[in-house]
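Example 3.2
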Amino acid sequence: MRQSKRTASEGLGKDGMALAVVFLTSGVMHFVRPEPFQAMVPRSLPARRLLVYVSGAAEIVCGLGLLSSATRRVAGLASAVLLVGVFPANVTMAGQARARFARDPRNTLKRGYLAATVVRLPLQWPMIRTALRASGVWR
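Structure, written as tokens:
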């Protein structure tokens, strides 16, 4: 009987793989273009750029961790915590998009950006569920 090669992401599922790709892509973008992410960080927090880099690194670590069955449980739990932690920043981003759109309501780009930021908010919850499923905590 022939044995097949096992892949690092075996058992992750399509939704878990998609979450890993989202984390890896977003995490890299925190370093490539930190300005949009920095705008989401409340001004009351110190070292806003550093916080962007730390959250980007956390997303990369979570994404990589989800890909390996050896680290998936911890990475899934950390991913869920990270998604809950960044939710207020996503709400801030939607509020900022709303304010920009209100100043220029005929701008279709601002309308589209506002729509994307609002649609993104309820999508956090399926992402959290996916992270918990990847960890094995939620089936």
